[in-house]
């Protein structure tokens, strides 16, 4: 990739179609003017004046859409097939953020399990001087002693998670997170199909939520079951960080979520990764996915014994039924107007592939019954809104120039989001190629 001039300059991108993130049909023969980090004009090419001296890049028959925004991912937990506190390093996190960016995910929310390094890294990514996706998140989080998140699944350090015993300890934990500048608070309410002995007691999560709200922070809740979703949102949780996956949502829960404008992040691909790489359907063999596999991960999924054992495990059957219910519930909630956020919970286990999983999540949203345009709007405009970000998520004047150039039309076929030609982040070419039809306007 050719590095661009470091001075802010004016760049005009042209393409056969532009999806602006608002959900409208693509704009044909579009032009987008970028100055520095910002979009300064967008519209049909014949109506957009080309500024003098601008660098004009004509992407021909390609499509342009906004960079994806993840509301639920993790950084610094995994390296290859290993998970552990020792991976919460600057080098590993920056590697993952560059991978997200190369896959067109230009903003990532690391939703908990972050160590002390998080704050400085987040500020660094906000400043835009370091290559990689912009970073938001939950500084550590509020779990349960001997409970969720299971230490066996995410063996993080003591400085990456609070596990309060009492309501007062929960309030102390939330105050500590607030003091370190967390964007959101997270609590876990789950017994992981009975594999951990306790769930967080109501008095503890109520105290955590009350304290967060008193400090002006919103609370995201990890749940799996409907009754936990009901209990935690009645206690005031603002965001469900996963879909309801045990039984169908009922009218009472739908009404509560609607009235209280609770965000719902289904993370459909989470459960699928438990078994799908053992099944090895066609899409898992695509170069788009293969590129995201570390050698040790590839060796694992190429091992027939691992595949057979994985498919026979009870957790795979559980994940299958969870995914089926999750697909059903997200459609019900979408149709009811519940605000849907976007994320795949990538980065928390070796097969939740940073960047690639987000595109699988788009495909699953369409499998659930959303149109491709609705899925894309969820992952751009809506995901930015969940974070309270007004500077991105759509391609409009004044917004950040975070965008992806694609072969084909993703509004017709969602799989086309994987046909990435180039990623522009903050007005700069972050990865991919510039087409040859390039000229300076005179
Ligand atoms: Zn997560």
TrEMBL record:
InterPro entries referenced in this protein's UniProt entry, alphabetically: Amidohydro-rel (IPR006680), Metal-dep_hydrolase_composite (IPR011059), Metal_Hydrolase (IPR032466), Metallo-dep_Hydrolase (IPR051781)
Protein name: Amidohydrolase family protein
Domain Amidohydrolase-related per the UniProt entry, residue ranges: 64-427
Pfam families, per database record: Amidohydro_1
């Amino acid at each position: 990739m050719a590095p661009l001039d470091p001075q802010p300059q004016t760049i005009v991108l042209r393409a056969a179609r532009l999806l602006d993130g608002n959900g409208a049909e693509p704009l044909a023969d579009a032009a987008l003017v970028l100055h520095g980090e910002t979009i300064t004009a967008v519209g049909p090419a014949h109506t957009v004046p080309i500024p003098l001296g601008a660098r004009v890049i004509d992407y021909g028959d390609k499509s342009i859409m906004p960079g994806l925004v993840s509301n639920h991912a993790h950084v610094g937990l995994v390296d290859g097939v290993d998970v552990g506190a020792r991976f919460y390093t600057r080098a590993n996190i920056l590697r993952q953020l560059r991978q997200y960016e190369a896959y067109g995910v230009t903003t990532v929310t690391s939703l908990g399990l972050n160590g002390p390094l998080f704050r400085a890294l987040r500020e660094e990514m906000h400043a835009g001087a370091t290559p990689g996706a912009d970073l938001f998140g939950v500084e550590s989080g509020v779990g349960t002693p001997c409970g969720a998140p299971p230490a066996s699944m995410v063996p993080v350090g003591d400085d990456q998670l609070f596990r309060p015993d009492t309501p007062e300890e929960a309030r102390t934990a939330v105050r500590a997170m607030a003091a370190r500048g967390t964007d959101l608070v997270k609590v876990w309410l789950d017994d992981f199909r009975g594999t951990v002995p306790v769930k967080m007691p109501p008095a503890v999560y109520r105290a955590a939520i009350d304290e967060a709200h008193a400090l002006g922070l919103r609370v995201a809740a990890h749940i799996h079951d409907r009754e936990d979703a009901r209990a935690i949102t009645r206690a005031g949780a603002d965001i469900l960080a996963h879909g309801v996956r045990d039984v169908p949502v009922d009218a009472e829960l739908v009404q509560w979520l609607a009235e209280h404008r609770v965000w719902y992040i289904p993370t459909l691909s989470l459960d699928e990764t438990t078994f799908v790489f053992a099944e090895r359907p066609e899409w898992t063999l695509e170069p788009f996915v293969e590129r995201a596999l570390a050698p040790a991960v590839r060796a694992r999924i190429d091992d027939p014994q691992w595949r057979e054992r994985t498919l026979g495990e009870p957790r795979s059957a559980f994940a299958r039924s969870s995914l089926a219910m999750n697909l059903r519930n997200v459609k019900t909630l979408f149709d009811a107007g519940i605000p849907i956020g976007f994320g795949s919970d990538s980065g928390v286990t070796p097969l939740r592939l940073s960047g690639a999983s987000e595109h699988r999540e788009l495909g699953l949203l369409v499998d659930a019954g959303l149109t491709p345009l609705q899925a894309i709007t969820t992952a751009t405009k809506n995901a930015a809104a969940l974070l309270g970000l007004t500077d991105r998520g759509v391609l409009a004047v004044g917004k950040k120039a975070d965008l992806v150039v694609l072969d084909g039309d993703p509004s017709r076929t969602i799989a086309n989001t994987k046909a990435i030609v180039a990623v522009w982040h903050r007005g700069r070419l972050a990865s991919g190629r510039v087409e040859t039809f390039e000229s300076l306007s005179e």
